[in-house]
C-alpha cells in the first residue's frame, strides 16, 4: 500500500466561495508544487469539492467554482504532483455541502427545532449560517455523492481519497431519518434524552450504525471504480460526543485512521495512541493547522518548535503528519511556511523515519469507549437542551493519560477491537458510562488471561457489577464529596485519612456490596455536613466533611489471578497533586513490575518500542507553550539490558550508562530541548 513510509503530508485548505471575482484569481499551481517539493512533502491532499460544494474541476454534477474560469485545478495538481513524485489524496466534502443544501432543500438536515442549519446565526456547533448541511440518510443525496465520486475517479487517478465530515453535526429529524427509524424499529424518533432508557440508548447506537453504513456506501462508490485507491473518512469526531454518531464502527469503511485536531500535545499523544491501535493500516494521519491555534486565526503561524513537536509526536507513534494550511481567498499561499519552517522541520524528522513502528512498550492501556460518549447526568431533557461540550467520556481518560505521563508509566489508548488481544498489565476504564454486551465479552476475555482492571465512576454493565461484587444504586445528591481511606486502603491513599479524606469535586456513584468474596473496601464515602448548592453551611467558603458513612467508594476485588480496583468517582481528574498520586499508586499496584522507569518531568513523555530486535526510546518535551524550556539530567532505567550501550540517533553518539541494582541499565540524557530518539545496542 502506497501509504507505508509516507509520513510528510500537506493540505491547502481552500473552502472559498465565488461571489467575488478576486477569489482564486492568484492561484499558482507551479508555485504551490515548488513549495511542496522544497519542503520534502510526500503526499498532497488536493481539494476536489470543498464545503461550498463548488467543484475545483470541470464537472457535470453540480457546479464548478466560477473563479477558476474553467481551469482544471484538481487535474493539474494530480498531474504535476505525480510528475514530481508526490502522492495525491483527493479531498471530497460530504454532508457539509452548501451547493447541495441550497439547491435541494429536501436534502437538508432538520434539527429538533424544525430548522435547517443555515437558518441559525451565531450559534454554537456549526449553527452560524455559513454551513449548508444535508442528511446522509437521504437517498437522493446519496445518488449525488455516488455521481460525484464516480466522476472524480473516472476523470483522474488518485492514490487516495479523503472523504471529509463523516458525522452528524446535529441530531436530525428530517423525513428520511424519521422514515428509516420507523422502518427499522417501528418507532418514532425520540425527543427526550434519557440514558437510563434502553430505547434511547438503542437510538443513539442506531445513529452510529447509520453513519457507518453511509461511510461504507461512499467507500464502495470509490472502490468499485478504483479498488487500489485508499480511503480515509474524517475520523476526528471520534473524540466528539454521541451527537456526531462517529464511532469505531467507521473503521470498516477506511484504510487508515485520519483526522484533524487543534488541541495541545497531551490531546495529540492521546489520540495518536488511539489511532495507532485502531487504524486498519499504518501510518495513520494526524492533521493540524499551520494557523495558531486553529484555522480561524488565518494570519498567525505556529512556531517552529510547535510544528516540530506535532510532527515528531505523530511520527514516534507511526503516524503521518498532515499540515493543514490556509490558502488566502485570492488563491495565494504563504511560501515561507514551506521554504522555511516546514522544510527545516521535515528535514529534521525525516532522519528518524526508519526507526519508527515496532511494538510499543506499555504497562497500562486506556480504553476509549466510542459507544459511551455521553454524560449520564445529561438526562431527562429535551434534545435542543443538549450540550456539545466534551464531558467525562473524554475528560476522564485524557486526565488519566496526563497522570500516566506525569509518572512515566508507558501506556496505550485502545479501542474495543484491541481489548481481547491487549497484553497491558492494567486496562483502565475511566468513567465509561455504558458498556455493550459484546464489549463486555472482550473485557472478560482480557481478565481471563490474567489482566487487571481499574474502573472509575459508573460500572457500565450489569455483568461487570456482578463480577466486581458491587451494585450501583444511584449517585450522591451532593456534588462535592470525600473518600475516607480504610485501614486496608491507607497505603494507596497515603496522605489522606479518616479526618483528612480525599476530596472529590463532584458526585460519587452510590453502591452496595453484593458479594464480598475476595473483596476489600479501600475507602468509604464521606459527605459534607449540609447538602451542597443550598444556603445552609458549616463553613461559609467550603463544604468540609461531616457525615461519615460505611458505604464503599473504593474497593479491590480479586477475580482468579486478576485484580480489579473501582473508585466511585474519577479520581484521575483531580487537580491536587496528592489526589492524582493516589490514582498513580493504584495503577502502579495493579501493574507490578514496570517495563521501564524515568525521572522525566510531567510534561516530558518517554516512549519505548522494539523493532527488528532493537530497543528504541523517544523522549519528547511536550510543553504546551513556546518557547520550550530545555530539561536537564533525565534518566531512563530498563531491566534486562546488561551489556547494552545507548546511542543518540541519528548521529549514533554514545550516551553514559551504568548498571544499577539487579540487572538494571540506567541511561543518562544530559540535555533535552525538543526531542531525542535513542537506541540500545
From TrEMBL:
<dbReference type="InterPro" id="IPR029062">
    <property type="entry name" value="Class_I_gatase-like"/>
</dbReference>
<dbReference type="Pfam" id="PF14871">
    <property type="entry name" value="GHL6"/>
</dbReference>
<dbReference type="InterPro" id="IPR017853">
    <property type="entry name" value="GH"/>
</dbReference>
<protein>
    <recommendedName>
        <fullName>Beta-galactosidase trimerisation domain-containing protein</fullName>
    </recommendedName>
</protein>
<dbReference type="InterPro" id="IPR052177">
    <property type="entry name" value="Divisome_Glycosyl_Hydrolase"/>
</dbReference>
<dbReference type="InterPro" id="IPR028212">
    <property type="entry name" value="GHL6"/>
</dbReference>
